[in-house]
User: Fold this.
Amino acid sequence: MKKPRWVIDKEQSKRAAAAETVWLFGLHAVRDALENPAREKLQLIVTRNAADKLEQAIAASGVAPEIVDLEVLQALRRLVHREDIAGQRAEAA
Assistant:
């Protein structure tokens, strides 16, 4: 049985949106992105230490950071890099 067209469209749309998303890791890359007014910022996930170091850039960006433990961020990074292998994009510094 073939998938309905709306299911195919939904799957393609989800893949296209994911392909446009770039995850940045590393203080310098994240700071540069936060300070770039042309970059669309969807979410900011940082450790308390990174939030302290990026305090000025975060304040200027207007993005509310989500503070997580280092282990959570490391797990996210592993996940993002697995997706990168599957055709997603990730930038790591």
